[in-house]
Amino acid sequence: MKIYRTAILLMIPAFLAGCKDENTAFGLDCGDIEIDAAGGTRTVKVTSTESWVAKTQEPWITVSPANGTGSAECRIIIDSALTVSPREGMVRIETINSGERKDFTIKQEGFRYEISPDNDEVEVASYAALADRHFEIKVKTNVPFDVVIPEQDASWLTCKKDELNLDRGARPRSVTLNFTWNFNVNQEPRSTSIRLVPQESGITPSGKESITVRQLGAEPIEIGVKGDSLALIAINRALGCWREFETAEKMEYWTGVTVWKSGENKGRVRSASFFLFDTKEGLPFQVKYLTAAEELYFFSNSNTFLKDLYPGGYICELTQLKRLTISAYGLIDLPEEFKNLKNLEYLDLSGNNFQKIPQVIDEDNFPNLRTLIMNANTRSTIYDLSNTVKEDLGGLIDECAKDESGKRSFPERLLKWSALDTLRLSVNYLQGSIPDFEDDPSVPKWTAAEVNACDTLPARLIGVPKILPNAKLFSVNLNRLSGKLPDWLLFHPKLDLWIPFSLVFPQDGKDLDGNLCGFSNEPANLDYYYKEYVNKKYNPNNIAEEE
Q1: Which helix (H) or strand (E) element contains residue 212?
Q2: Distance CA 503, CA 409 (A)
Q3: Whether pLDDT at 25 is above 90
Q4: Does residue 475 contact residue 445 with C-beta atoms inside 8 Å?
Q5: 65: cis peptide before it, omega within 30°?
Q6: Among 2, 54, 304, 444, which is least packed by CB within 10 angstroms?
Q7: Are strands 480-483 and 518-519 parallel, antiparallel or unpaired?
């Protein structure tokens, strides 16, 4: 028994020595760490019987906890990369007393160049209200890029890109593309491929660098009675009219609609009115289907004075139109195709925002036009035009430009339009003097033969320029006109019908040069006129004689 007890006693020191070596070992359970550009967290187990501390020189590496006593688990937190190049950093864990060290390396990949839309295929309807004709696509990227829409598709699809802020280097950021689309007037669907192109050459990003946008074709509208009703409803909807058509009734009973009672167009729309609406666009494309209409009336867009609109080209396809009103809509110009409406007899463009009379409006383009109304095109009332900071005043203010001598004159081409029976230009900002045309060889004069052939025309008219000879109404009141009233106006055969003391002579305010407006030779009454037109029934002397 002594022999065994002695052996056991001899083994105890050796056993204790072995346990001490194992408990005092210092080590880590990992080697080098490899991680992708997005970064993340890794766990390292530290084995130790004494205090230790973790150290790194890299700001993108964090060890938690950074020190401890005895064994523990450390979280190695690695930030996302900032560049496209890989990077390395070292972590050292060192015991405080013995100074034993364990090092390991962290290798992180760089970000790849990336342009990745969250949706690379979009389908839109053929038509929707303006407020609904848009969609967004978010793009994850670390590359400044341009949005390239094929030229042939830029007319129906546009894009506005939010500002891309790459505040973290190559770390991808999200940017929003705001697309706006226009309606498809054709029955065939269409599509386009939008490219997202890096602004810097030599960069080949990963991800899908294109977006496909498909648009459905328009619902078919056939020319005819049914097509007219569908077109009216669509136009009403597109304009945002406050009043809807009574679709439960026949179209001939709809408010503001008249139809042909006989002939080849029997039952189709002859005239239609749209009023009190809210649109930021031109006339809807569905107007082109109203191919039997003689008259269309569009009146009172909301906040007209704030808008800069064009009617668009679809209305120009209705070459059969005779009467057209686009009033208080917000128009600032007309397209060249407007001249296709050669059958127009009546055109009302009042209450819009024209800076000048559209160039397309002239006698050659509209040989059948008899009434032209362009009054009240001012956006707001400015008394003194020389003392305002406002711009884009409307009111035909650009029409009366200064000539070489510094004088302003009335738009002569309208006064030479001999076929007009109504010309209304009141409440605008027309300036300068009304031309007398005395020395204009292109203007005919009243002849003795014409005067002698009509018992109401006075001899005083012989030799006077023959301006607007058929005009039953001519109004230019409340403009900024000045100077002398010419003889052709003072002795015009229809002057008394024009109600001149209300619709011709009164002017208002000051012009762009600060001059007080008004005519220097404005008559006090029409006695001078009736002394010449002695045979007119409006002559007070004749009325007295008859009594």
Answers
A1: strand 210-215
A2: 19
A3: no
A4: no
A5: yes
A6: 2
A7: parallel
- The CA distance from 268 to 227, in Å, is 9
φ, ψ of residue 96 to 5 degrees: the values are: -75, -40
Reference 46, options 108, 92, 1; nearest CA is 92
- Sign, CA dihedral 281-284-288-293, equals negative
- The count of residues in the chain is 547
**pLDDT for 151-193, tens place per residue?**
999 989 999 999 888 877 778 888 999 999 988 877 789 999 9
Residue located via tokens 């509208």: 221
Alpha helix ranges (H) inside 286-429: 412-415
Distance CA 490, CA 483 (A): 13
Helices and strands in the chain, H and E counts: 8, 28
Dist CA 172 CA 138 (whole Å): 12
Residue 222 makes CB contacts below 8 A (sequence gap 6+) with none
Backbone angles phi, psi at 304, to 5 degrees: -55, -40
Pairing state of beta strands 323-327 and 295-301?
parallel
Model confidence over 420-459: pLDDT tens digits? 999 999 999 999 999 999 999 999 999 999 999 998 899 9
Q: Look at residues 339, 361, 349 and name the one whose alpha carbon lies nearest to residue 309.
A: 349
- Tell me the C-alpha distance between 488 and 464, whole Å: 6
The C-alpha atoms of residue 168 and residue 390 are separated, in whole angstroms, by 44
What is the CB neighbour count within 10 angstroms for residue 28?
16
In this predicted structure, what is the pLDDT of residue 11?
A: 46
> Structure tokens of 179?
């697309």
Helix/strand/coil for 507: coil
Predicted confidence (pLDDT) at residue 409 exceeds the cutoff of 50: yes
Which range has the worst mean pLDDT, 75-89, 333-347, 399-413?
A: 399-413
pLDDT band (50, 70, 90) for residue 318: very high
Helix (H, G, I), strand (E, B) or coil at 500: helix
Alpha helices, H only, 370-486: 412-415, 448-452
DSSP state of 216: P
pLDDT of residue 22: 44
Structural contact between residues 309 and 282, judged by C-beta atoms closer than 8 angstroms: yes
